[in-house]
Design brief:
The chain is mainly alpha-helical and 305 residues long. It contains 14 helices and two strands. It has a domain of 207 residues. Helix 3 crosses helix 10 and helix 4 runs antiparallel to helix 5. The N terminus is likely disordered.
Length: 305
């Protein structure tokens, strides 16, 4: 385990940070189109093979995971680090959120507080979700069901204008967040209506079901980011970087380099591997794979189901 620096965010020189902070429209476009290509190919195989083809289940898993991991471009888009143009980042975040059941306007404010108060009890909004303390709670969490319940409740609460008790949504942002959420729910409503009118359950077969299949895999990944790290607002010790397979790293837009991201949120996704080579000696939590992290999480749980 590395010894934390006395000043975590001053590890990089101004020159290093300037170099790593460079956004690239080309790299952003390649990443976006690559993710969409995986969605299109796996979704196409799922659509044509689901009845009899042996590729149906693998295609469904890949397609569902690709849908769920559209959370990653939501995340990068709200940081506005994918493209050099603010509007392109915002459009990417909103469209990716539409497909992954996140709302980018809401998530931007939520995530800003998560960075500001990482692992601080009563402040970090991610800690509002119960951290699994037993095996039963862990299995319930990774099933994705609590995520679905929370998203449905949260979206409808915001759409109804009930945001006064949400501390990370400031007064001046409330109208935007409400309007964006209402628009998103309206799109879902139209899509459901068209699916019913056409007599084809495509809204379920090509969105709800695949996303439900992909969510448990995403839960396993996101659970590794901070679980069992120190409950202090120090990015060197409260966040975990996880080594993983390239396809997962690609679909997660390099988010597995999560400690690097928390140390320097301004660094775009494509520069995080380079940042890791410089930061690795300073990090307290670097894991060899998500299966290893989750085994350790389960091993530390209580025996009560």
């Amino acid at each position: 385990m590395a010894t934390p620096s006395s000043s975590p965010t001053s590890i990089f020189s101004p020159e290093d940070l300037k170099r790593l902070n460079q956004r690239s429209n080309w790299k952003g476009a390649v990443q976006t189109l690559g993710h969409l290509a995986i969605l299109a190919v796996s979704g196409g195989v799922w659509a044509t093979q689901r009845s009899l083809g042996w590729l149906a289940i693998p295609a469904l898993v890949v397609y569902g995971f690709s849908l769920a991991t559209l959370f990653a471009p939501v995340h990068e888009g709200v940081h506005r680090s994918v493209f050099t143009h603010k509007g392109l980042n915002d459009a990417l975040a909103w469209m990716a959120g539409l497909l992954s059941f996140y709302n980018s306007a809401f998530f931007r404010r939520y995530h800003k507080w998560h960075h500001r108060y990482t692992q601080v009890e009563g402040k970090d909004p991610e800690l509002e979700d119960a951290i699994p303390a037993t095996l039963g709670q862990y299995l319930w969490h990774v099933s994705g069901i609590p995520w679905w319940i929370g998203k449905v409740r949260g979206h409808f609460k915001v759409a109804m204008g009930q945001v006064e008790d949400i501390p990370y949504i400031p007064q001046e942002a409330r109208a935007e967040v409400i309007r964006s959420t209402r628009l998103q729910l309206a799109v879902y409503g139209v899509a459901i209506a068209l699916s019913i009118a056409g007599g084809q359950p495509w809204f379920v077969m090509y969105w709800l079901l695949p996303l439900a299949v992909g969510q448990p895999l995403l839960r396993l990944i996101l659970l590794a980011e901070h679980t069992n790290c120190t409950p202090r607002n120090n990015p060197l010790t409260n966040t975990r970087t996880t080594y993983t397979l390239w396809p997962i790293r690609f679909l997660m837009w390099n988010m597995p380099f999560h400690a690097e991201h928390h140390l320097y949120p301004s660094i775009p996704f494509h520069a995080l591997p380079a940042a890791h080579t410089l930061l690795a000696p300073h990090l307290s939590h670097v894991a060899q794979g998500y299966s290893r992290v989750n085994r350790d999480i389960v091993a530390a749980l209580g025996t009560t189901v």
